[in-house]
Amino acid sequence: MKKCLITILILFQTLLSYSEHYLITGKVANELTSEPFEGATVFVRSLNINTETDSQGNYSLKLPEGTYVLEAFSLGMAIASKSVTANQNMVVNFYLSELAGNLQEVEVRDSRQSLAGISRLQAVENFGIYEAKKNELIILNDFAANKVNNNARQIFAKVPGLNIWESDFAGLQLDIAARGLGPGRTANFNTRQNGYDMSADALGYPESYYLPAMQAVERIEIVRGAASLQYGTQFGGMLNFRLKEAPNVPFEMNVEQAIGSFGMVSSFASVGGKLNKLDYYGYYQYREGDGWRENSEFEAHTAFAKLGWQANDRLKFGIEHSFLSYKAQQPGGLTDEHFNNGNLEESLRSRNWFRVSWNLLAATLEYRFNERTQFNLKTFGLFSQRDALGNLEQIGVPDNPNESRTLISDKFNNQGSEMRLVHRYAVGNKNSAIVVGARYYNGLTDRKQGDAITNDGSDFEFLTPEDPEEFDYEFPSQNYAFFAENLIDLTSRLSLTSGFRLEHIRTDAEGTWNLNRYDFAGNLISSTENEDASSEVRTFPLFGVGLSYYINDNLSFYSNISQNFRSITFSDLRVVNPNFQLDSLITDERGYNVDLGIRGRLATWLNVDISAFLMRYNDRIGLYELPGSTTLFRTNIGDSRHIGLETFSEVDIWRLAGKNSRKSGLGLFLNMSITEAYYINSDITSIRNRRVEYVPEVMLRTGLNYRYKGLKATYQFSYLGQQFSDATNSTFNPNALTGIIPSYQVMDASVEYNFNQFKCTAGVNNILDEKYFTRRAESYPGPGIIPATPRSFYFSLGFKLDSK
């Protein structure tokens, strides 16, 4: 199959014609101080295209043969212009002077921001190659949404194919996945913040308990399965939250106060600025609420601080610290009977709690050797803990207040470094770029499970901390990786991207677990302590190749195939849960992703990204119900094949009507995916040829984005088709752990208004008060059905103060 696809790609290359394009690179700097301008704009007026400079003041443009006027400008500086004749690759530098008087207003329309909140990554950007890859870039400041509660349904509305679990009202954590992968804590993406890992353990426990405040996020970068070569082996790809940079003033402060339904209160404050060679940015967010169900109160603190020092025009250092602390009471799951009777606010658990304490540190270094070669080093460390406390029994079993609760406590101590070097070069008169890098990662997770205090408070303490009743394990892991990816222009319109990744992974497990036996009344009869130690080492390569063909400057075809790998997690090695058992012979998962699509501007008023994908997922780990039992068994349940169509389109209604206003706009977007995912090979009869769990065959999101001067408004409609919650496609079970997840539709609306230094936002989520759920949990925060949030409102008022 893979050989056939590669052959198709090569044949596709030979069918294409082309015309010459040339690479224009250069630097934008201060005329007096020679300091580079980050975020300066270089504009080609006749083509209505532009780009921004990076942190070193560098830019690059690809232009067809001809003569053009290039203009460069930055905040508070006069425009500089140069006439160039593009008949070869060339370097064009700009040196800007301060404004001496009033400047006539100039409109710049960046193709990146021509859509409301969605765009795509450039071919080479931020020490990565993204040409020929399926990717999305969410620009959060471009649209109105409920960023106070991190509403993923609105924030990711224009990314096709995303299934979103809506497990908590406050958006304390993110649960998203694509192409039929499990959404739980976004574990099937390689999740990053500012380019470095932020998950609990990138190898053994890639779940993300930490989520930055969306009010502090500048953009979100998503690269699908082809990200496996540069960022790690996950099937879902890479998800990166890029936080706001320091504003280009000595001091700026933003404050925002929000209130909402169910007792929600949110306070946000940020400060930032640049002082000579030093830049800084930081924020603090506090949120609390009662929740909309009984026993669902929460309190959360999130903070971030960053310092950067531009040592000279080549070298920059930075340090960052992210902090999260939250505690939430968990109301537990519901049975189908409770949900169908409309008792959604009811809670069958009053003693369940969850706590997270997150510390993520990073040090960065960027060095520019010359205009074409840059080096980047990121070193990071995670020192964090999560604790789950409560009753893990099936939700139909009453919670006895006189029995001790179960406490699962994880401590994460991880360190890693990742270095990258990007070099732009020419072969003949054709442009090329190569990214090479290496990664070192060392992780240690300490996991304990045992009995905890009997009461209903948030006392996260073991009864016997030195000898917990269930198990006490350490899970060390190590990872060394080397990767390289190369982009070469075969012609002025056709480019080839190819690369490989060499992985060395070691995962260990060492500890003790107790075999406990109980009588029918639940009394402990005997307990036998068992020692366990295991180690697994594997070294393997991954390969990928992609082609990109530009029909014109605004529209391109892209295609790629990349191998993927997912290591067994610590949860696959040892857990004590009365609802499921583990297979001791469980193994890693392997497969590949294929993309073929077209994206860009079909007309001045129509943008599209339409792609087909194939994902092969071998030795998939999953759950199925043991015959004659209500216990779930976790093992390699079979190979799955995922085929689908992901489409996004947006119509600029203003332009379609013949209007072209800089101050206003109206856009209609449609995001739809159709996915068929089946188990095509399984030794388990009840699973073979069944649909993969948590894969709606149809997902549709559509809406309107309106802007007028300082006003932004968004309306959105979402529909997800029916899903199964387990691999056997069971339709009903009285324990509610498995069964159908019915189709549902939800409407949301948000508005934002900026006037002078003030900002006002308001909105309503789930306008029609739809009763629905997105998941059935086998453990926390269930077990059972987790109902989604009913209709809710929010309102916020913000103020900006700066030293301009």
Task: Report the end-to-end length measured between terminal Cα atoms.
Answer: 60 Å
Fraction in helix = under 10%
Give the beta-strand count: 45
Overall, the morphology is globular
Point out poorly predicted stretches.
1-19, 100-114
CATH architecture of the largest domain: Beta Barrel
CATH superfamily of the largest domain: TonB-dependent receptor, beta-barrel domain
Q: What percentage of amino acids are in beta strands?
A: over 45%
Tell me the major beta sheet. Answer: 22 strands, antiparallel, barrel
Helix/strand-derived category reads: mainly beta
| Assembly level | single chain
How many helices does DSSP assign? Answer: 5
Number of domains: 2
Average pLDDT, to the nearest integer? 89
Structure overview:
- The protein is mostly beta strands and 804 residues long.
- It has two domains: 1-109, Immunoglobulin-like; 240-791, TonB-dependent receptor, beta-barrel domain (Maltoporin, Chain A), CATH 2.40.170.20.
- It contains five helices and 45 strands.
- The strands form eight sheets. The protein has a 22-stranded antiparallel beta barrel.
- The longest helix is centred in the first third of the chain and has 13 residues, at 2-14.
- The N and C termini lie far apart (60 Å).
- Mean pLDDT is 89; it is low at 1-19 and 100-114.
Please outline what is shown here.
The chain is mainly β and 804 residues long.
What descriptors fit this protein?
804 residues; mainly beta; Immunoglobulin-like; Maltoporin, Chain A; 2 domains; six-stranded mixed beta sheet; 5 helices; disordered N terminus
